Amino acid sequence: MTDMTKSLSLHLGLIALLLSLNWLLPSYHHGNLARIMVLAIYAIGYNVAFGYTGLLSLGHAMFFAAGMYGMALTVRHLGWSPAPALIAGILSGFVLSVIVGLLALRTSGVAFMIVTLMFAQSVFLIILYFTEYTRGDEGFVIQQAQRVMGGIDLSEAHNRYLAALLGFGVCLMLTWFLVGHPFGKTLIAIRENEERARMLGYNVYLHKLGAVVISGTISATAGALYGLLFGYAGATFATVQYSIFPLLWVLLGGAGTLLGPFVGTLFMFYLIDFTSEITTAYMLVAGVALVLLTLFAPQGFMGELRKRALGWLP
Amino acid sequence: MTNDKVFSKSRRNALKTLGLGAAATTLPLWARYAQAGTAEPIKVGFQAHKTGIGAAYGRWYERTTMAAAKKINDEGGINGRALEIVIEDDGTDPKRGAEVVEKFATRHNVDVGFGTLFSHVVIGSAPRAGELKLPYFVVSEGHHVASGMLNRHTLQPCITDVKSQVAAMAPFVANNLGKKVTMIFPDFAFGHDHRDFFSAAIEAQGGEVVAKIAIPPTESSFTKYFPKIPRNTDVIYHVMVGPAVLTFVKEMGEFFGPSRPEIFGFIDSLEAVDINSPGLEFLEGTYFWEGHPRYAQANQTEYDKAYRAGVGVDNTGASISDSKDIATYAHMFGCWETLHTIKAGMEAAGYQSTADRSKLIEAVEAMTDMPEGFAHPQGAKLFNGKTHQVFGHQYITKVSGGRLNLAHTTSIEDTFYPDEVDYTKQSF
């Protein structure tokens, strides 16, 4: 069995496992996993920029929010049905990521982090500024009747789970295809040694721009799906902490691994869910977990697995 | 999560080992619980702002809730069953709030969800409560319930909403402080609600808003905004929130000096803050809306006395055990009263299990008058079952000698506005 076959089997196997869990999980974990899959899409998007291209963004919440509001505002104010609204959300993220990419990629390193942070803060303030339309910090509900797509009620538990799985599966396999494609391999080359990639004749700027656009668009897909499946859009999702979350998920799960974002999101979700029952300092626990992981498994769960046992993991 | 059974299994076991005398004192309570069809407690999921921006409120909401639960259990529980409060921290975050509601419904299998304050958490959580058919009793004062934005499973039966609070202030402001008002408010949804609702209400009283000064939420200094206040202003209406309020008051004092217009504000910004804190001297002689007067007043009722004693608050609104720990007194009564309303609703519905959740909602929808009493120490109320929103008295206090003294009590009728929704037409 070739490495590619093994890899394909593993990723399709995960999707099949998640599909079977739709009928096996108790309702509590069933609901959690639907949410985790949507958030994992966000982490997958972040991983394309950070894990595979080495672009450490502190502003990805703007893409998530662009998708969420692109979807939700068209539903609320234009009366769009979920399918075109979802596309509007994804397109919003695409357009924003092109604009941000064109400007922010004029910087690198720490400056890139600061510029993305500032752009994200601007998006957050724009949401507040147009409170008349966005309901600002309070946000607004996307009613159950507005979440029926082609006769399928996305607020129903199984439909929600399957929709989340569909989104997750598509994004996972898209990135699987991406990292095996010469474009993806060039991104990895840029991450490893940008100057060498440039010297070899690759257009580093365009590749980075492509990475930011793919990353932002996938993140926006997560935002649009989140609003659609859980019925709420609010400015909180554009705050700094929602830019930090995908970084943590990806670091925990393994930056530059395809399954890392899912594993990290799953781990962090249950870590917070469990520790918040014990202490109000649950984010401290999450922080300690991250420090320990950095010390003893700096490449994250899947990164360590790849290093120690499964060298073929993409 | 904390399970806080006032009558936990371990305590019952301990009681069994006590002597006959001690057992006799608790026997009537046992007897009442023994009459219930099931020994299982009624579980109320308390969505608490233990962390995040709402933590100061959350701490006092929790204390009030636990005190009310103790009282209810001491009096025999609900339908002969003990009341158990299941607490989950929502981090004052709408995403986590929705997760907590799911956890209540699908893991803890609580009978109802309860206690949320911050509007964005309510709005983020309510859709999931509706989808999971979980009765969701909020203590938020947001207009989101009565606006029709939410669903039939979400109710606000014991704290008035911002629209009625603001509207009820207009007659007092116009008749006692002046008719030309400058509004200073945070430039986000909460501030915009005040701007829109008060502007309409003061115009109905023959007054006018001469300037609307929106402060960006990231602002930390306010001196550049004060020159925008028109010279003909009779009253400044302020509703700043967050830690910057102390700077706001101090800088406003420095700007006006001894000669200032009348000033009226909402206590929200100074909940859990000592009115005698350094920098707040300028508030002397100004007026505040309070949902429930922080300082015990000359006309204090026996209900307020019992409520303060139950929660552990002294006559200045501070914790009995720590005079520097100031309560969020203007809002937290809502937890006490809502828990009593859940009890009343369950008893009216003959509530036995989660299968009776719809009956509970219908029973609460059927409620109208809520007379002042030990269950409603803040005052009498009138519940509107169609809009799922309660209406009640509002209190205006004046800062005088470092105290907040009652200056005016509105009528319930002052808080009315036309219905915007009829939730009873929605199916379960």
Summarize the topology.
The complex is a heterodimer of chains A (314) and B (428).
Chain A: H1 3-24, H2 27-50, H3 61-78, H4 82-104, H5 109-129, H6 131-134, E1 140-141, E2 148-149, E3 152-153, H7 157-180, H8 182-192, H9 194-199, H10 204-230, E4 232-233, H11 241-253, H12 260-275, H13 282-296, H14 300-308
Antiparallel strand pairs in A: 1-4, 2-3
Helix pairs in contact in A: 1-7, 2-7, 2-10, 2-11, 2-12, 3-4, 3-5, 3-10, 4-10, 7-8, 7-10, 8-10, 11-12, 11-14, 12-13
Chain B: E1 2-5, H1 9-16, H2 20-34, E2 42-48, H3 55-74, E3 83-89, H4 94-108, E4 112-114, H5 119-131, E5 136-137, E6 154-155, H6 162-177, E7 180-186, H7 189-204, E8 208-215, E9 235-238, H8 245-256, E10 262-266, E11 287-290, H9 302-311, E12 318-319, E13 322-326, H10 329-349, H11 357-365, E14 369-370, E15 381-384, E16 389-392, E17 395-400, E18 403-409
Parallel strand pairs in B: 2-3, 2-4, 4-5, 5-6, 7-8, 7-9, 9-10, 10-11
Antiparallel strand pairs in B: 1-3, 11-17, 12-13, 14-15, 15-16, 17-18
Describe this entry's structure for a reader.
The complex is a heterodimer of chains A (314) and B (428). The longest helix of chain A is centred in the last third of the chain and has 27 residues, at 204-230. The model of chain A has no long low-confidence stretch (mean pLDDT 94). Chain A has one domain (13-239). Chain A has helices at 3-24, 27-50, 61-78, 82-104, 109-129, 131-134, 157-180, 182-192, 194-199, 204-230, 241-253, 260-275, 282-296, 300-308; strands at residues 140-141, 148-149, 152-153, 232-233. With 314 residues, chain A is mostly helical. Chain A has 14 helices and four strands. Chain B has 428 residues and is α/β, with parallel strands linked by helices. Chain B has two domains: 2-160 and 331-392, Response regulator (Rossmann fold); 162-290 and 394-415, Rossmann fold (3-Layer(aba) Sandwich). Chain B contains eleven helices and 18 strands. In chain B, the strands form four sheets. Chain B has a seven-stranded mixed beta sheet with strand order 8-7-9-10-11-17-18. In chain B, strand 15 (381-384) and strand 16 form a beta hairpin. In chain B, helix 3 (55-74) crosses helix 10 (329-349), helix 4 (94-108) runs parallel beside helix 5 and helix 10 packs across helix 11. The longest helix of chain B has 21 residues, at 329-349. The interface between A and B is large, with 37 and 38 residues.
